[in-house]
Amino acid sequence: MATKHMFDNSQGLVERNLRGTVAQNPALRYYAQHKVVYNPAHDNKKVAVISGGGAGHEPGQGGFVGEGMLAAAISGDIFASPSAAQICSGIDLINHDAGVVMVVNNYTGDCLHFGLAAEKARAAIAYSGKQGGGVEAVIVADDVAVGRKRGGLVGRRGLAGNIFTCKILGAASDKGFELKKIGELGRTLMDNMVSIGTSLDHCHVPGRPKGDEERGALAPEAAELGMGIHNEPGFKHMDKKPEPEALLGEMLDLLLNPDDEDRAYTPFDKEDAPVVFINNLGGMSQLEMNAIVDLTIELLESKWNLHPSRVLCGSYMTSLNAPGFGVSLINHKRFEKTTGESLLELLDHPTTAASWVGVQSGWGSSSGHPRDRKAEEKEADDHLQSVRKAGGSVSGLADPGSSSGGPSNPDPELVKKAILAACDATVEVEPTLTRYDTIVGDGDCGETLAQAGNAVKKALQEGEIPIDNAAGTLIAIGEVLEYAMGGTSGAIYALFFAGLVQSLLSNPKGSQADVKVWGKAALDALENLGRYTPARPGDRTLVDALDPFCRSLGAGKSLAEAVEASKKGAESTVKMTPRLGRATYVGSKDDGDMPPDPGAWGIWALTDGLRKGLGQ
């Protein structure tokens, strides 16, 4: 597996990738501040289909912005979902009077951030009094690897079926279908699509350690079945890779076996003529991909008596340079029977998205004048300002900044010292969290937390975080986190801080934010968070450390005691079986091999830094 890159670290790489994507299509624009690729000419009479997710899946999703597909795509950092603030800007940058359909992969962070953006969009539409608009969400969940029993609360993951969904719904929008019908088409598509992935190794993220153990490399002869798109381990490890016919045969069996009650999501009869959609995870040669297509068709016909109506193969949604692929099957006849619409007509509908068919028109003069990127960035800024000034803006709905209500911080300088210490703790613990998360997840937990810590520290040092008023302090920190911290943990932190603020504002103005006030706020915020995530103690998530911390403070115990409770909660995750998040998909390990949950350990490190900063 190659660990050498032209770019030796990921700093600025996502932004360059997106600028390069837009450079290949003259119709598109790029809003750098929030990593949005969008089509400013999207017809306002047509529903806007948008999607997004972490970087590292290129060309998904920025390469699929264009007429007949996406109106906008929003990118997070590598393998981390974009924030709700980014998504809200993406909505505001496009014409969406006919409504917005969000195509969201079924990962916790993506669902939370897009869900929060959807709520803001609905509120903005109601506030503006616009008629005909609205928001529909289509959650892409096509993976069969884990199955119903183990998937539990998480459900099926979203794989390359995301891009197929964007194609179908984008075509429906281009043909003038109304909002609710497009949403129904997307959900019906989920009932008729199944996918499974495999890989010979994990990908390597630029800038991360290159050692085999540190990056979770597979042995030279090994392979894993049930790979996702975030570098997480498969559900089945194979010490010796099977021959291609045996491997593909097992994959098709997982997709098609009607007797597998755990995975028989979509039935296929011999006359159903499925659409075959084969995705390169990024590191497979086209020579082998074409051979995989041929063998897949051969096995479908010889074993299952199925003859494809369409065959598509390419790099639609990658996992950087992972040497693997995925197979998706779509039952277009059941789709048409349910919806009355031809999926094949929607699939064949033209699009200008460069990564689907390539752009062949619209370049204008051949003079070769370079794109004026600064002017285009100003164009995006001006448009956002005009939308916000008109009222009903999604990205400007909540006014960030300080608050004068609620209790005051008794010692502002001590508060500043405590925040800085907590930020430093996130940076110090990053290598440990990265090591833990490489084993049980996609390896970005430490980087995400450290990035957030550095952003808060910078904002504090530049005077952007007020330290006199408790609620104002947390509002400003929450605003920084929403911009700087992607992924599942980013949404959870933002929601928790929002709960703290609401509780603090219930106290009289001018009162003091003492231990009792903070204890109640912690319990209130914990309860508020529980409305948005099913995670509870025992599920092996950051809640295992956050819950005991909040309950200890709420019971009147000291900060030191609460931090100790948080540490014990984090340590207890070593023996837990994950029930939520990407760790759910990791193959079982022997007792003693699993590290603490990275998110839980990060909570303990952060709270311990806070304790040290307060001198307790």
Automatic annotation (TrEMBL):
Residues 413-612 form the DhaL domain. It catalyses: D-glyceraldehyde + ATP = D-glyceraldehyde 3-phosphate + ADP + H(+); dihydroxyacetone + ATP = dihydroxyacetone phosphate + ADP + H(+). GO terms for biological process: anaerobic glycerol catabolic process. Residues 9-356 form the DhaK domain. Pathway: Polyol metabolism; glycerol fermentation; glycerone phosphate from glycerol (oxidative route): step 2/2. The keyword Nucleotide-binding applies. One of its GO terms (cellular component) is cytosol. The active site is at residue 230. Residues 358-413 are annotated as: Disordered. SUPFAM superfamilies: DAK1/DegV-like (SSF82549), DhaL-like (SSF101473). Substrate binds at residues 54-57, 110. The keyword Ribosomal protein does not apply. Signal peptide: none annotated. Residues 369-385 have a biased composition (Basic and acidic residues). It comes from the Eukaryota. Belongs to the dihydroxyacetone kinase (DAK) family. This is Putative DAK2-dihydroxyacetone kinase. It comes from Kalmanozyma brasiliensis (strain GHG001).
